[in-house]
UniProtKB/TrEMBL annotation:
It is an enzyme of class 2 (transferase). Its main location: endoplasmic reticulum. Dol-P-Glc:Glc(2)Man(9)GlcNAc(2)-PP-Dol alpha-1,2-glucosyltransferase that operates in the biosynthetic pathway of dolichol-linked oligosaccharides, the glycan precursors employed in protein asparagine (N)-glycosylation. The assembly of dolichol-linked oligosaccharides begins on the cytosolic side of the endoplasmic reticulum membrane and finishes in its lumen. The sequential addition of sugars to dolichol pyrophosphate produces dolichol-linked oligosaccharides containing fourteen sugars, including two GlcNAcs, nine mannoses and three glucoses. This is Dol-P-Glc:Glc(2)Man(9)GlcNAc(2)-PP-Dol alpha-1,2-glucosyltransferase. It catalyses: an alpha-D-Glc-(1->3)-alpha-D-Glc-(1->3)-alpha-D-Man-(1->2)-alpha-D-Man-(1->2)-alpha-D-Man-(1->3)-[alpha-D-Man-(1->2)-alpha-D-Man-(1->3)-[alpha-D-Man-(1->2)-alpha-D-Man-(1->6)]-alpha-D-Man-(1->6)]-beta-D-Man-(1->4)-beta-D-GlcNAc-(1->4)-alpha-D-GlcNAc-diphospho-di-trans,poly-cis-dolichol + a di-trans,poly-cis-dolichyl beta-D-glucosyl phosphate = a alpha-D-Glc-(1->2)-alpha-D-Glc-(1->3)-alpha-D-Glc-(1->3)-alpha-D-Man-(1->2)-alpha-D-Man-(1->2)-alpha-D-Man-(1->3)-[alpha-D-Man-(1->2)-alpha-D-Man-(1->3)-[alpha-D-Man-(1->2)-alpha-D-Man-(1->6)]-alpha-D-Man-(1->6)]-beta-D-Man-(1->4)-beta-D-GlcNAc-(1->4)-alpha-D-GlcNAc-diphospho-di-trans,poly-cis-dolichol + a di-trans,poly-cis-dolichyl phosphate + H(+). InterPro entries: Alg10.
């Protein structure tokens, strides 16, 4: 990379660091004490900072990855700068800035690897700006300034993905893959996504075509497989055994990690570490529809351009009866699902500090509006697929959709933070034009400004706690 190509990423790196420190200082000025989930995370991290590794708060649901990372970073700063009060509220929050800067670097690296994989070339400044956008994705960037798991959880998932794409996924990388799970247990699903992707690569290795990897090409690969099976007079079971062996060679370390995780869940009796009753597994498929609307809302520059590019085709093409029937039946099915699967977690209804509370109250949980928006789920699902398939092969699209569903469907609580990593992985796959990326940058900046403004300038009080200011967060 030339010095010219380094200019933009280096400039944005220092700009992001500078702005983040300024925001951290302002947030700390107005909220010096642990807030919401910080009342669990900060004391636990401080317990580790005092080298007490046996004490654990049973209300914490995640594994201790965040506290271990903070311990390492803050002890390094303590050694370098001889600063005693290093494990303070401010110090712990500040470690997230390092995670955000790491997200910026890793996102750029992942996008470059994906473009190599799909033989696509984008302008360097678009890749860098996309990395900046994803690092400042509003629901993610907001939690840079509170001591939550989201920033570092995303960092380790991105690191896992980068190592996989770089083919550095050998036994020496297991600790990095393990780190993503220790940050948040549900990240094991993204390890599963890599296994599925590699399995398809192994399967299609001998049946590739030099053309667009859409559904028709996937169909041809599968047809070619069975044709070759017949022509070469091979036994299907023998071919399956060879396939399994090839997959194991490529992904044994990932499968090993999944096996360890399954044993942990069996031993623990739950995927969460603590507060198991409040975080019980529910069958909640509506979460996927909420996520689709969330995704298209935050990616509207991509969705809008896609719709505009399709408008002439939509006008000219006479819709087939079968398509009309599918649309009608899908709308009816979504309508039935929205009535049958409306779930309201007590935590959601009891806490009006979260933006999710108002989204639920005004839209998803509202009797009239949740029925009016039923067609938007169908449109969002269509755009989610169309934007993804422009760059990815069909089977990866299916695998990502499946893993996202596995991640979201068991979640009882409607929580925007659950959507962050599925969105980031989806966004990484998109083809991008200058106008889309520029519009995304402006939009994210506006949303970030609004959410920080609400947090700082619009506090309110509860009658039960008149002396404590409450603030809006995602």
């Amino acid at each position: 990379m030339t010095s010219y190509h380094l200019l933009l990423p280096v400039t944005l790196f220092f700009f992001l660091g500078y702005v983040s420190v300024k925001i951290l200082n302002v947030i700390y000025e107005y909220q010096k004490y642990p807030y919401i989930d910080e009342i669990f995370h900060i004391p636990q991290a401080q317990t580790y900072c005092s080298n007490n590794w046996t004490e654990w708060n049973p209300k914490i649901t995640t594994l201790p990855g965040l506290y271990i990372v903070s311990y390492v970073i803050l002890n390094l700063f303590k050694t370098l700068f001889q600063y005693d009060n290093y494990c303070s509220v401010y110090g712990l929050r500040a470690t997230n800035i390092i995670g955000t800067l790491l997200n910026f670097i890793l996102t750029i690296s992942v996008i470059k690897r994906l473009e190599e994989k799909y033989a696509i070339t984008s302008r360097n400044h678009l890749i860098v700006l996309s990395g900046f956008n994803i690092a400042t994705f509003p629901p993610l960037y907001f939690f840079t300034f509170l001591y939550y798991t989201d920033v570092w959880s995303t960092s380790f998932v991105l690191l896992t993905y980068y190592l996989y794409l770089s083919k550095k996924n050998n036994k020496n990388s297991i600790s990095k893959f393990l780190g993503s799970v220790i940050m948040r247990q549900t990240n094991i699903i993204w390890v599963g996504l890599l296994i599925l992707d590699k399995s398809w690569q192994v399967f299609s290795k001998n049946y590739k075509f030099n053309s667009k990897q859409d559904f028709n090409i996937t169909k041809k690969i599968i047809q070619n497989f069975f044709f070759n099976l017949k022509m070469k007079d091979k036994n299907l079971w023998d071919v399956i055994k060879i396939f399994i062996n090839d997959v194991l060679i490529e992904t044994y370390h990932l499968i090993f990690l999944c096996c360890i995780f399954i044993m942990f869940v069996i031993w623990n009796g739950s995927i969460v570490v603590g507060d198991k009753l409040a975080h019980s597994v529910k069958f909640h498929p509506m979460q996927n529809l909420y996520f689709l609307n969330f995704t298209i809302f935050f990616s509207w520059p991509f969705a809008l351009i896609e719709l505009l590019s399709m408008r002439t085709k939509i006008i000219k093409i006479k819709p087939r009866n079968v398509i009309i029937i599918i649309i009608i039946l899908s709308t009816i099915a979504i309508g039935i699902l929205s009535e049958w699967n409306k779930m309201e977690h007590p935590y959601l209804l009891a806490d009006n500090r979260h933006i999710a509370f108002y989204i639920w109250k005004k839209i998803f949980g509202h009797g009239l509006y949740r029925r009016i928006i039923i067609p938007t789920y169908l449109l969002s699902g269509f755009l989610y697929y169309k934007l993804l398939i422009k760059k990815c092969h069909f089977m990866f699209t299916i695998a990502l959709t499946l893993c996202t569903a596995l991640n979201l469907t068991p979640q009882f609580l409607f929580e925007i933070r659950y959507f962050i990593i599925p969105y980031v992985i989806w966004r990484l796959q998109l083809k991008q034009s200058p106008i889309q990326v520029y519009a995304e940058t402006i939009f994210y900046s506006i949303v970030n400004f609004i959410t920080f403004y609400l947090f700082i300038n619009k506090p309110f009080v509860w009658i039960s706690e008149p002396d404590i200011k409450q603030r809006f967060i995602w």
